[in-house]
Amino acid sequence: MSTTTHTTEEIDQTKAPSIHLTNLSYTFPSTHSGLSNLTLSLPPKSRTLLIGANGAGKTTLLRLLSGKRLAPSNTISIGGLDPFKDGLEGVTYLGLEWVLNPIVRTDIGVKELLKSVGGDHYPDRKDELVRVLDIDLDWRMHAVSDGERRRVQLAMGLIRPWRILLLDEITVDLDLLSRSNFLAFLKKETETRECTIVYATHILDNLAEWPTHLVHMSLGKVKEWGEIEGFELGEKGYGKTGNSRLGELVLGWLKDDLRERGPRNKGTTSEGTAYLTGGLGGYGAEDAIKAGKRTF
Ligand SMILES: Nc1ncnc2c1ncn2[C@@H]1O[C@H](COP(=O)(O)OP(=O)(O)OP(=O)(O)O)[C@@H](O)[C@H]1O
């Protein structure tokens, strides 16, 4: 049984959850330090962009937030709960493992797939996602393009009405219009339902109007975070380079990070060890199923 105490207000399952990190540090089983001393607060119904160079720690953080990995006590609170120990209702984490699920490459129809993830229970959401993501219900999954497959996967992942959505860059295969429609759908979700989104992405096109908050990570630390208004992007639109002002801000961050870190081949990072599934470390090594907190 959890020893954490919660106020009634904090665990109201009908409200969008806030996210609080307090001195969150995380070390991989291989003793590689993944995250160090993260503290931040994201309010209910916020849409946060998680920004950082490859290896900055974005996936590590999202997995901790989703409850797939055990964080030290009292370092993560989502709507007043510890995601690993308490288990969270309504968390959708869409990342690499989900994308790699082999079922979406077999000779199976889209209707069947959507039904298997609850499409019949949420017909309105299913119809909306099919429209937003421009899905043909007659597609068979072994005979679609990568982008079409990704659109079906997104619909599958989003049909159940989540309270917190953790998106680890999975929109890379979408064409510009599909991505724009998809982002507009997510924005509407936070405006019309009780839900909160954290989205790790490297693609900033057409995102200037989307986030309510930014979090900048580098080398497992949060370098800055806060409301989008606090980042002095000036007028929304395009900067001198033709990039969006958000794009220019982030490019500046990443250049500074690289200058501070130096080139990777000096051995200052351990890029390449992510996503191992066996041996030391490896995502999934301590998943919540083993701890009896989840059945899926
Ligand atoms: N299982 C593991 N064992 C040891 N180190 C790991 C493990 N998984 C990831 N790392 C290291 O932790 C750091 C952060 O990895 P993470 O996957 O969180 O980065 P990221 O910001 O999501 O990167 P990207 O943008 O490339 O997806 C990297 O240096 C990575 O090599």
TrEMBL record:
Biological processes, Gene Ontology terms: regulation of transcription by RNA polymerase II
Transmembrane annotation, as ranges: none
Keywords (A to Z) from UniProt: ATP-binding, Nucleotide-binding
Listed GO CC annotations: CCR4-NOT complex
CDD domains linked to this entry: ABC_ATPase
GO molecular function: ATP binding; ATP hydrolysis activity
Residue span(s) of domain ABC transporter: 19-244
Pfam families reported for this sequence: ABC_tran
Name of the protein this chain belongs to: ABC transporter
Originating organism: Mollisia scopiformis
